[in-house]
Amino acid sequence: MDWIYNTSDPILNTFLASILIFVVIIFLTRLIGLRSFAKFTAYDFAFTIAIGSIISSTLTSSTSVAQGATAIASLLVLAFVFSYLQRRSKVLNNAISNKPLLLMKGNTILETNLKHARIHKSQLIAKLREANVTNTNQVMAVILESTGDISVLHSTSDTSYNAIATVILTDVRETV
């Protein structure tokens, strides 16, 4: 029964550390901003995983709450600085961010772009169903976003790709 509960388990310490780490994350997120946990780039994804790992090690190992809080604060400050620099430097932004990629233009599936993005046609079709597309003539565009999400722009009537506002397609790559 030791695998369920062991009297040497620091249950109270883990509980108190959870509360403290929760308060630290809320405080730092309010201070630095919600952008801290946004999912815009691969960097953001790696950052979120790192924070989760720090929280885990703080709550389940000999890492102190102060050490865990310092590590989290350091990463959040780094994320804040990177987001600032990313806004200021187009070169850094291009190095960190992926550009969205067009997967369908109107009802035409762009096979080369699917292959480049390593997305199978069946996955694309599943996303169309998820977006309640009942006919490919309803599709205006399907875009692989820089976050890895797939956006389906569609209409209930036959509408062309050209009807999409230019601003919606800003930075979207049509070809690889």
Automatic annotation (TrEMBL):
Belongs to the UPF0702 family. The lineage of its organism: Bacteria, Pseudomonadati, Bacteroidota, Flavobacteriia, Flavobacteriales. The chain crosses the membrane at residues 12-33, 40-59, 65-85. Its main location: membrane. The keyword Cell division does not apply. This is DUF421 domain-containing protein. It is a multi-pass membrane protein. Residues 88-164 form the YetF C-terminal domain. It comes from Bizionia sediminis. Keywords: Cell membrane, Membrane, Transmembrane, Transmembrane helix. InterPro entries: DUF421, UPF0702_alpha/beta_dom_sf. It is found in: Cell membrane.
